[in-house]
Amino acid sequence: MTSLQHAVITWYRAHARALPWRSPGTTAWEVLLSEVMSQQTPVARVAPIWEQWRERWPTPAHFAQAGRDEVLRAWGRLGYPRRALRLHECAAEIVRRFDGEVPAEVEDLLSLPGIGEYTARAVACFHFGRNVPVVDTNVRRVYRRAVEGAYLPGTASKRELAQVGALLPEHDGPTFSVGLMELGALVCTAASPDCPACPLRTRCAWVAAGSPQPTEEEKKRRRVQKYTGTDRHARGTIMALLRGSDAPITQAQIDVAWPDAAQRSRALFGLIDDGLAEQLADGTFRLPR
């Protein structure tokens, strides 16, 4: 084991967050739920929803039997609700093709609806102990800084899987993988890395280069689009109305909730196109059944 691998594993064992899905006895289904829910969503918002879901739908079979409206209500304000519907499709496929058990191999996981490279590898690695590279934004950033000396990662590519895969130790590979991710989440952050607390400081290529600050191009990539007033905000407002009502809602209710007519129309019919809402014959709207 190299000094880099040893440093990451040792640091992780001392500093890992006590996330609920890391507890002993967590099932593969629960790990899959946590990974999908955590995409582009802070852990603090995910944890209570995850706890509710694992109690309500403890297996893929339980979840596959739920109505789509139930699923979308339970998703709440986690954001990007299409993830919830894709999870629903995923559960049905697990029941149909894998006897209700989440598969352990990356290729099988990738064949499921809504499961991409990251999620498939995360479940295979973190639950089933497969020694495969797992690359998310945090891992990409740690690799880019520690190995290549750049402030932020460039465009994502499959080449990164091979690069990170080359770092995996023969033993404790899954611990190293989750350690890289945790290091990026807690220490080697995008805006303000805490270099004095980093176990890779003495071997970090970015620190050795004098910790160069981001270029204008990197600053542009790092900027996060505002939420207030956007089409996403309009969609979220309409979804909140739909989730909060047992009966179909009227166009007048939607008009009051979001006064910008053009944006409201885009948001509403975008939700319908995405299968997140449906219009009834009387012109009212509801969650899909």
Structural class, please? mainly alpha
Radius of gyration: 21 Å
**How many strand segments?**
2
The coarse overall form would be globular
- Largest sheet entry: 2 strands, antiparallel
In order across it, which strands form the biggest sheet? Answer: 1-2
Whole-number average pLDDT?
A: 94
Total helical segments: 16
Alpha-carbon distance between the two ends: 53 Å
SSE sequence, one letter per element:
HHHHHHHHHHHHHHHHEE
- Helix share, percent: 55-70%
Beta percentage is under 5%
- Which regions contain 5 or more consecutive residues with pLDDT less than 50? none
Cofactor: [4Fe-4S] cluster
Organism: Corynebacterium mastitidis
InterPro entries: DNA_glycosylase (IPR011257), HhH-GPD_domain (IPR003265), HhH_base_excis_C (IPR023170), HhH_motif (IPR000445), MIG/MutY (IPR044298)
Protein name: Adenine DNA glycosylase
Could you describe the 3D structure shown?
With 289 residues, the chain is an all-alpha fold. It contains 16 helices and two strands. A hairpin with a 5-residue loop joins strand 1 and strand 2 (285-286). The longest helix has 17 residues, at 82-98.
